[in-house]
Amino acid sequence: MSTMDHAHSHADDHAHDDHHPHGWRRWLYATNHKDIGTLYLWFSFAMLLTGGLLALGIRAELFKPGLQLFQPEFFNQLTTMHGLIMVFGAIMPAFVGFANWMIPLQIGAADMAFARMNNFSFWLLPPAAILLVSSFLMPGGATAAGWTLYAPLSTQMGIGMDMGIFAMHIMGASSIMGSINIVTTILNMRAPGMTLMKMPMFAWTWLITAYLLIAVMPVLAGAITMTLTDRHFGTSFFNAAGGGDPVMYQHIFWFFGHPEVYIMILPAFGIVSQIIPAFARKPLFGYESMVYATSSIAILSFIVWAHHMFATGMPVTSQLFFMYATMLIAVPTGVKVFNWIATMWQGSMTFETPMLWAVGFIFVFTMGGFTGLICAITPVDIQLQDTYYVVAHFHYVLVAGSLFALFAGFYYWGPKWTGFMYNETRGKIHFWASLVTFNVTFFPMHFLGLAGMPRRYADYAAQFTDFNMIASIGAFGFGLSQVYFLFFVVLPSIRGGEKAADKPWDGAEGLEWTVPSPAPFHTFETPPTVK
Amino acid sequence: MSEQNNSRNLRTALILLSVAVVFFLGVILKHSLLR
User: Fold this and answer.
1) Alpha-carbon gap, residue A355 to A340, rounded angstroms
2) Nearest CA to A404 among A455, A363, A350, A371?
């Protein structure tokens, strides 16, 4: 601690702010928000590659009709684990990594509110991931019930299912602690003068996301706890033979699951809302309406869950309610897309890599949004339920939405993290390769779904072959693009390169650009004043 | 970094945690007791 005190006495000299523990202790005992952010980002990238490998297994099997590589049981494990790993291991922790790194810097706080709990939130994740991934090695393999873990499949499987349930419990606890930390930090630790309505949009979207997480992660925990007691303790929550109801599981799951969808996209909206104004060199159009639109999407997300289960059968009035409520979400989402475009309108736009990803996001995410509206129409959805159309839809919002925004955020804030500029040409190669291969992979799935190809099958009828071959080729291209990103963009930009200015983007606004690049270990120990 | 230990942060965290606990127990109790 004496070195820390020494550093504090030289508050003006940033070199002294860089005192930090070395070796493994720095990471295992990390309480610094930047270090924990870095841990989250590396963890999520490792999970992205793991989930990506499973996806390539799926696409390899589906390259041709007939069974080539895997038995159907194992194929179902691949689809299930791909979903679980990507949702809970890759996308969610990546956004928490961004929150850890950027929220204290954006609101002028010295660190997160609960630094030790922050450490615990992160270090719960690796054991949970190991538990989840190692369930492949158990008798009967990993859970194969789909990422939604529907009963009765989930009440019948082997020990891999229990490992999956425990992994979800641990990841849920991590998310709840992380969210409590984020809400407390934002509500209580903003710099003087930083009113809520002056907060950067990324902090706003995360505040709303954290509330969603606190409300719905316990519901998922409740659902899988009931699954666990059905499996081992003689209850019959979801067991029809004992008086339970498997459809009830779907209701509870989707009460969590639909807000979860917005948990994965709202912070992406926040990142894009920071990048578009910076590269259009104009303030964000309609800041207040962005805040209200984000809140509206969050509130509406609680009353649309049954649009995932139209095919289970429900009264027509329920169908109409869930259909119209779902369509209503297009209004605040439309406000957002309008505001992004209005921000760009007559701006002095340049297209460095972060802006390419952000504009790419708007195009491709909006396509996913429109197919979402199509799926919201009850009679159409009953046709499309469990076809590749739905797979195409949610990959357009989760890959082209969440993942593209994460890449945008990496290129935008990466120079602040590493102190070095990434290579612009390589960044652009990564963008264009990803955009093209993404569309080659997922656009044909719309046609497959409309033609009736069901999801979660290892085999298909011969008439679906051409589009499946195209999708598989695209998927391997997309995977290669991300390997290129790791070896030709991320690692070189950590090792060195052109030194990043404190504010590398001349149109960027916000407190994070007032600190040096790379951001020193300790920042804002004396809170800045915001006018 | 004195804010990290203040009671206001703790109060906020406890309120949020209690919401989470209510949702967790609520969903199980509702389906155990109110059938």
Assistant:
1) 12
2) A363
Closest residue in A to B4 (Cα) is A113
Residue identified by tokens 């207040």 is A288
The verdict on a CB contact (< 8 Å) between B13 and A216 is no
- A273 labelled catalytic: yes
- In A377-401, which ranges are continuous DSSP H helix? 378-384, 388-397
Per-residue pLDDT for A407 more than 80? yes
Q: Which residue from B minimizes the CA distance to A255?
A: B27
Tokens of A379: 């009679």
Residues of A in contact with B16 (CB under 8 A): 179-180, 183-184, 214
- Min Cα distance A219 → chain B (Å) is 5
Tokens of A347: 């701006």
pLDDT at residue A163, rounded to an integer:
97
The verdict on whether A333 is a catalytic residue reads yes
pLDDT single digits (tens) A93-120: 999 999 999 999 999 999 999 999 999 9
Q: Dihedral of CA A332/A338/A341/A345: which sign?
A: negative
Give Dmax over CA atoms of chain B in angstroms.
50
Query: Residue A387's beta-bridge partner residues?
Result: A454
Instruction: Give me the catalytic one of A101, A123, A262, A305.
Output: A262
Q: Which residues contact A410 (CB under 8 A, 6 or more apart)?
A: A490
Put simply, the answer to whether A111 touches B1 (Cβ < 8 Å) is: yes
> In Å, what is the CA distance from A29 to each residue of A32, A272, A299?
9, 33, 37
By CA distance, what is A116's nearest residue in B?
B4
In eight-state DSSP terms, residue A523 is: -
Give the pLDDT confidence of A181-218 residue by residue, as tens digits: 999 999 999 999 999 999 999 999 999 999 999 999 99
What pLDDT score was predicted for residue A126? 98
Q: Residue B35: what pLDDT?
A: 58
How close does chain B come to A289, measured CA to CA in Å?
26
Contact A172, A217 (CB under 8 A): yes
Out of A16, A34, A59, A82, the active site residue is: A82
CA atoms of A456 and A478, how far apart (whole Å): 21
Scan for tokens 């044909």, then name that residue. A444
- Alpha-carbon distance of A483 to A163, in angstroms, equals 29
* Helix (H), strand (E) at residue A230: helix A201-232
